[in-house]
TrEMBL record:
Matches recorded under Pfam families: MIT (PF04212), MIT_C (PF16565)
MIT domain mapped to chain residues: 1-71
Gene3D superfamilies, per database record: MITD, C-terminal phospholipase D-like domain, Phosphotransferase system, lactose/cellobiose-type IIA subunit
Protein name according to UniProt: MITD1 protein
PANTHER family: MIT DOMAIN-CONTAINING PROTEIN 1 (PTHR21222:SF1)
Gene that this sequence comes from: Mitd1
Length: 241
């Protein structure tokens, strides 16, 4: 398992997918350290330690490279979610960027509405995103939502749902500020630690569940996805709405 993790780390490293390769290097190093502890052959131990040292050096170099890119405002990571792929719940995409210093979040998505539309559950998706923030290691105090008004009779339902989310978040010490724009088109999520995530489909990249009691209805990691692209950036200054 350690060898496979390292093989994958090297492949990602060569492909300049540094953030992903760093995770694989760290995983492989942990596995190899366990192998060293379980090995009684001194020659093999020496070989493993030598390899571990090499991988640790490379991992540190990648850390420095990533940090420099962040400081220069040049960091960019792209994730391609294939049609019907699973394993891409919100925690998978966002959790590694929700460090303890995150206290403020900006969400721009024109379609946080339509609770009962046949193909979308966007207000529920936004609620699920907020739940992740409340549970996470971060200390979120303020969430800013910029979206558009629902059309026709759906506006009343949209406002009622958002107000309920707002009141519920306040019970956890989180303030939800809601603004509306008729011209918003971009979909992006920003954290005040400098991370910005742009998802082609916004928070609505999950397919409709087959039924209320089907696998994937509650656990988004098990829900098939629509094809979309996720771009992750790090900026020196997170703009405000």
């Amino acid at each position: 398992a350690g060898a496979e993790a390292m093989k994958r780390a090297v492949q990602l490293d060569v492909a300049s997918r540094f953030q992903e390769s760093l995770v694989c290097y760290q995983e492989g190093i942990d596995l190899l350290l366990k192998v060293v502890k379980a090995t009684t052959d001194e020659a093999k131990k020496h070989l493993y330690r030598q390899k571990i040292s090499e991988y640790m050096t490379r991992a540190e170099d990648i850390k420095k490279h990533i940090e420099k890119e962040k400081q220069d405002g040049k960091y960019h990571k792209q994730i391609r979610i294939e049609e019907n792929a699973t394993g891409f719940g919100y925690e998978k995409l966002f959790l590694e960027y929700l460090t303890e210093i995150v206290s403020e979040v900006w969400v721009e998505d024109p379609y946080i509405r339509q609770v009962h539309q046949a193909s979308r559950y966007l207000l529920y998706n936004f609620l699920r995103f907020c739940e992740m923030l409340v549970k996470g290691p971060c200390k979120v105090k303020t969430i800013h939502l910029l979206t558009s008004y629902d059309e026709g009779s759906g506006r009343s339902q949209q406002m009622t749902a958002l107000e309920e989310i707002k009141q519920s978040l306040s019970n956890y010490g989180v303030t939800l500020n809601i603004d509306f724009s008729s011209s918003i088109h971009d979909r992006e999520i920003r954290f005040n630690n400098g991370w910005m995530i742009k998802i082609g489909r916004g928070l609505d990249y999950f397919k409709k569940p087959q039924g209320r009691f089907s696998i994937g209805y509650c656990d988004f990691d098990l829900r098939p996805c629509h094809e979309t692209t996720v771009d992750v950036f790090h900026t020196k200054h997170t703009k405000k709405m």
